[in-house]
UniProtKB/TrEMBL annotation:
Domain spans labelled OBG-type G: 1-256
Function statement: ATPase that binds to both the 70S ribosome and the 50S ribosomal subunit in a nucleotide-independent manner.
Organism phylogeny: Bacteria, Pseudomonadati, Bacteroidota, Flavobacteriia, Flavobacteriales
Family, per entry: Belongs to the TRAFAC class OBG-HflX-like GTPase superfamily. OBG GTPase family. YchF/OLA1 subfamily.
One MF annotation (Gene Ontology) recorded for this entry: ATP binding
GO annotations of cellular component type: cytoplasm
Name of the protein: Ribosome-binding ATPase YchF
Keywords of this entry: ATP-binding, Magnesium, Metal-binding, Nucleotide-binding
Limits of the TGS domain: 279-362
Gene3D superfamilies from the UniProt entry: 3.10.20.30, P-loop containing nucleotide triphosphate hydrolases, TGS-like domain
Amino acid sequence: MKAGIVGLPNVGKSTLFNCLSNAKAQSANFPFCTIEPNVGVVNVPDPRLSKLEELVNPERVQPATVDIVDIAGLVKGASKGEGLGNQFLANIRETDAILHVLRCFDNDNIVHVDNSVNPVRDKETIDIELQLKDLETVEKKLEKVKKASRTGNKDAQKEETVLMQIKEGLEQGKSIRALEFSEDAYADYVKPLQFITDKPVMYVCNVDEAAAVNGNEYVEKVREAVKDEHAEVLVLAVGTEADINELDDYEERQMFLQDIGLDEPGSAKLIRAAYKLLKQQTYFTAGVKEVRAWTINIGSTAPQAAGVIHTDFEKGFIRAEVIGYEDFVKFGSEAKVKEAGKMGVEGKNYIVKDGDVMHFLFNV
Ligand SMILES: Nc1ncnc2c1ncn2[C@@H]1O[C@H](COP(=O)(O)OP(=O)(O)OP(=O)(O)O)[C@@H](O)[C@H]1O
Ligand SMILES: [Mg+2]
């Protein structure tokens, strides 16, 4: 699962990527600085992991990770080959969620490809290109489905209705995630086409230092413009955080963060939000060798969760011993939780909860 950073050229996408990941992407004050996507594996900051580390005192700790991709800037006409053309639209298609960066700061020294700061307009520019790309996809599919539908194929007729609904929505400037489908229609006809505007999105408002905590007028306009999308809007002083990240010393970084009014980097909040956007959740294993956060899809069963460690764990799954995170902390160790009778023994239908501390029994 990966989240892609998307936006107009020169709005701070690579700078954001560098805040999140240790992989250094080139960022500079000119449009189309990024051409090939930069890929980074980013640790998901999770205070629960430090707490478990404290209690178990393991040899090593492994946080959950999320893959972040920094993609080239999009411009008007991209879907027709303008700018870097279609290539990076393919890069976006390969992601599972979109972090849409919007420039929400004034600075005459930083070029804006459309010559003025207007994040709502910028958002629409990007949306239109993505919608046009999806329109192309749906029209291609419709051509085929219509043929089958004319021969009286009932399934094809149903599909045609759904695809027409998508086509009309896109033509009205709506993104597919804003359209409503029945659960079946979505699973059968919409999801398989992997539309770009169906991917979950989060808006990242790139502000200056003064607006790091409370945002500014640009941010308010963005919030207003996206209020029907049920999408999260995150405020981040990307440039400032990148500067702070350059400091080697942890104490010094904390000091600068406090100076701008933050108790943790906005990028930490962003990574956690991206993780949620990808519909991922965490369970833990807490052994003396390793305390580790594992990533699963929300709604995973115990065997599916076991399968993330090893496919044999899933195939040979017998049962799972489960301790709720809160109980683990309250009693302080696996043994004490057992003593208190708070350890659950769960079978293959158990739906794993976020934060469960798990131990699997299996045979191979
Ligand atoms: N909040 C900010 N305030 C001031 N300058 C910023 C801010 N965020 C980014 N910048 C500056 O904007 C310029 C462009 O940033 P960056 O290279 O990250 O853009 P990009 O979106 O990746 O562009 P491209 O699409 O061309 O790859 C850089 O000089 C960067 O330092
Ligand atoms: Mg870039």
